[in-house]
Write a structure and sequence with these properties.
Elements: H1 15-28, H2 40-47, H3 51-63, E1 67-69, E2 75-77, H4 82-105, H5 110-124, H6 131-152, H7 155-168, H8 179-197, H9 201-225
Antiparallel strand pairs: 1-2
Helix pairs in contact: 1-3, 2-3, 4-6, 4-7, 4-8, 4-9, 5-6, 5-8, 6-7, 8-9
Length: 231
Amino acid sequence: MAYESLRTIGPGESLADAAYNQLSEAILRNEMPQGSSLSVTELSEQLGISRSPAREAVQRLIHDGLAEYRGRRGTVVSSTSASGFAALLEVREVLEGLAARGAARSDGGDGEREELADLHDRLSRVPTGAAQSASDFVTLDMAFHRLIRELSGNPELEVLLDRIQARSHLSMHALWKGAHNVEAVLAEHTGICAAVVARDADAAEAAARHHIASLRERVLDSIDKAGGQLS
């Protein structure tokens, strides 16, 4: 299994929090592929914690859509069908548009907008091809979108997008096989970033919606070429 002994617990972090954070990171980095077992007994042994915080971490993964209970098979890392992914991104397209509009209109200072530009720059410098690069790309991509929704100043929108983004990123590794997909994502992020920095709400919403709609088409195309496999 990809999980390992629990890392150092952060300030104010419970064992369950630390276990959840470590497992969700492994799932989103594709270190624990879709369908991987999430046995509470095995997790508690390998993470070096009792079953109670391990069980709580698994329940949170289920709540966030990163894991699912399958009866006798127990709990496993979620698998997403092509139709389920398409439906998910239809919703995400609207919500990301609202978040980008809010970010562009926010009263936040230039520092946060500079941070967004820095994240985009770091994303553009991730070398394509290697598995570790794919993980780094996904991590920075999520950070880019997370900062936009934080800038929007809408906590309800943040909660909804946190869950949807985590689930939709289960598919991102399917895109890493084609460099043109990465180039397209970067070009679309450039448009979003420029509009948010310029405080152009209409352009920011349009760019964000275009990005998610295009992402949906690219992933579905990758699925089709892979014979229906999402990961």
